[in-house]
Amino acid sequence: MSRQNYTAGTRWESEIGCSRAVRVGAQVFVSGCTALKPDGSMADADDVYLQAQQALRNLETGLREVGASLADVVRTRMFLTNIDHWPKVARAHLEAFGDVRPAASMLEVSSLIDSRMLVEIEADALVFA
């Protein structure tokens, strides 16, 4: 079975030694995605809904780069710096996944790697072609 890694080029991938997405066979694992835009800027630092949307776009890119899609996602984990923001993050999640309805967890954390980040989302997927 071969292994396929995708790196998005963020500074943390090289500093931590990780990939945005890893695929081994039918299994895909996507690291925590945040509101960083492809150019390295932060999306909408004060709006958790817009940050969640950007994180999900980044997650979708990671999936696509290893031959998967949002439709293949079976589990997500959402980390929020303020659990009171859960309805806005949930709305972005529902809009992204619709009828896919992956198993999901939503947790409050004290902080993320950058203090401007309000939400981080990771996913696991299974691809059967």
What would your notes on this structure say?
- It comes from Deinobacterium chartae.
- This is Enamine deaminase RidA (YjgF/YER057c/UK114 family).
- The protein is an alpha+beta fold and 129 residues long.
- It has a single domain, classed as 60s Ribosomal Protein L30, Chain: A (2-Layer Sandwich).
- Helix content is 28%, strand content 29%.
- The chain contains three helices and six strands; from the N terminus they run βαββαβαββ.
- The protein has a six-stranded mixed β-sheet, with helices on one face.
- A hairpin with a 2-residue loop joins strand 2 and strand 3 (27-33).
- The two termini are 15 Å apart.
- The mean pLDDT is 96.
Keywords summarizing the entry:
129 residues, alpha+beta, 60s Ribosomal Protein L30, Chain: A, YjgF/YER057c/UK114, RutC-like_sf
Chain-wise SSE layout:
Layout: E1 3-6, H1 11-16, E2 21-24, E3 27-33, H2 48-65, E4 73-80, H3 86-97, E5 103-108, E6 119-126
Parallel strand pairs: 4-5
Antiparallel strand pairs: 1-2, 2-3, 3-6, 4-6
Helix pairs in contact: 2-3
InterPro entries: RutC-like_sf, YjgF/YER057c/UK114
Protein name: Enamine deaminase RidA (YjgF/YER057c/UK114 family)
Pfam families: Ribonuc_L-PSP
Mean pLDDT: 96
Number of helices: 3
- Which segments are poorly predicted (pLDDT under 50) over 5 or more consecutive residues? none
Largest sheet: number of strands, sense, barrel closure: 6 strands, mixed
CATH architecture field = 2-Layer Sandwich
Q: Assess the beta-strand content as a share of residues.
A: 25-35%
**CATH class descriptor name:** Alpha Beta
Order of helices and strands: EHEEHEHEE
Strand order of the largest sheet: 1-2-3-6-4-5
* Derived structural class: alpha+beta
Number of individual domains: 1
Strand segment tally: 6
> And the CATH topology?
60s Ribosomal Protein L30, Chain: A
Helix content: 25-40%
The global form is globular
The span between the termini is: 15 Å
CATH superfamily, please?
A: RutC-like
Radius of gyration: 14 Å
